[in-house]
UniProtKB/TrEMBL annotation:
NCBIfam families: division_SteA. This is Thiamin pyrophosphokinase, catalytic domain protein. The chain crosses the membrane at residues 322-342. Residues 307-360 form the SteA-like C-terminal domain. It comes from Corynebacterium ammoniagenes DSM 20306. Keywords: ATP-binding, Kinase, Membrane, Nucleotide-binding, Transferase, Transmembrane, Transmembrane helix. The keyword Transferase applies. InterPro entries: Put_SteA-like (IPR047795), SteA-like_C (IPR022215), TPK_catalytic_sf (IPR036759).
């Protein structure tokens, strides 16, 4: 945005663009906005496209991922009425122009779809409560393994796109508080690869490396309500003891959070596999009724790792760093001058002159 000038063409990759994102674009006054994705996918009713159209901005969508590699930032381009993007005579991509009628139709369809989807979603939530009420209320079926969590901080690491980066960002937190570390599925492998030994592993052993399973962590296997657990044969072949956790959810992350909550963790820091209302609205695969209810059960003790990482991140500008460095040097020089000037038998000036002459004589002697 800092390089953007009024009348430029903005290139974005933002499906279902929000009002905030649209306003950020409107503020820099683009001539057109080219979207790699769709401005409205139909998953949620979003006002972003309407705001851009109200600002008389040309909208072009679905130009495809290849366009990102084909254009150069800051170079001149033109858009034809047919939705073609040219750099000189070179055709870079072809998209679909978004008109007002299409934006209105997409919004109305998305609103109806959202209502239908939410009715089904909360219907499934009621079914989960009906089948797993004893688990959510009294912890029925939760393994006793994990008693050391009581009153302590717990870090639950689930696999995600950037979970390794998040683990690295928590290193100071882990060093300071020595929390109980729970590896979920392949997240346990990442912990071992980064030099940590998980206290517990929750997940299907088929998806976890043998060395990780043999790291000394206690293993808990997700199981069906009837007690059937995938990966049990592998655990038996490796000669590793394990406990099962029967539940109607097949998410190992949900089970790990319930385990930490039941055993009285003071704080549960979640790495990866986070969930918010936007995920539920957009019907993301991880936004299941079980995931929502599990996080509500953990309540205010559940903290996303990004919040902890922000607390441990010290931001400082390079200019202020240089100023402090220069100030430190000046203070040190002033202290030396004062010590020399007041440390001899003569006046302040005579002491400085004598010291300087002695230094000069010594240096001449070296050469």
């Amino acid at each position: 945005m800092k390089k953007f000038r009024s009348g430029d063409i903005a290139v974005i990759n933002a499906a279902n663009i929000s009002r905030q994102e649209a306003q950020a674009l409107i503020d820099v006054e683009p001539a057109a906005v080219v979207n790699v994705a769709e401005f409205s996918t139909g998953a949620i009713p979003n006002y972003g496209p309407h705001m851009l159209l109200d600002a008389q901005v040309l909208l072009l969508e679905n130009v495809g991922e290849d366009f990102i590699a084909g254009f150069r930032d800051g170079k001149k381009a033109r858009i034809t009425e047919q939705g073609e993007i040219f750099a000189g005579d070179n055709l870079l991509a072809h998209g679909t122009q978004v008109e007002r009628a299409k934006a209105e139709k997409d919004f109305a369809d998305a609103r109806r779809n959202l209502v239908d989807r939410m009715e089904a979603y909360f219907g499934n939530s009621i079914e989960f409560i009906h089948s797993e009420g004893p688990l959510l209320i009294d912890g029925l079926g939760i393994p006793e393994s994990g008693a050391e969590m009581k009153g302590r901080k717990v870090v639950v690491v689930s696999p995600s796109e950037d979970h390794r980066t998040q683990i690295k960002g928590l290193r100071n937190f882990i060093r300071e508080y020595e929390p109980v570390i729970v590896g979920v599925d392949a997240g346990a492998d990442s912990l071992v690869a980064l030099g940590y030994t998980p206290d517990l592993i929750v997940g299907n052993p088929e998806d976890i490396d043998t060395d990780t399973l043999r790291s000394g962590a206690r293993v808990i296997l997700p199981a069906d309500p009837d007690g059937t657990a995938e990966g049990l044969e592998r655990i038996q072949d490796l000669g590793i003891g394990a406990m099962t956790f029967p539940a109607a959810t097949d998410s190992a992350t949900d089970l790990a959070l319930l385990l930490a909550d039941y055993h009285g963790a003071e704080m549960i820091v979640q790495v990866g596999d986070s969930l918010d209302l936007d995920d539920i609205f957009a019907a993301e695969p991880n936004a299941t009724p079980a995931a929502m209810l599990t996080r509500l059960k953990a309540g205010n003790r559940l903290v996303d790792s990004s919040a902890i990482i922000n607390l441990y991140t010290v931001k400082s500008g390079s200019s202020s760093t240089w100023l402090w460095a220069i100030l430190g040097i000046l203070v040190a020089l002033a202290a030396i001058v004062l010590i020399i000037g007041m440390g001899g038998d003569g006046t302040f000036t005579d002491n400085l002159i004598d010291t300087w002459n002695n230094i000069a004589t010594t240096v001449q002697g070296w050469f």
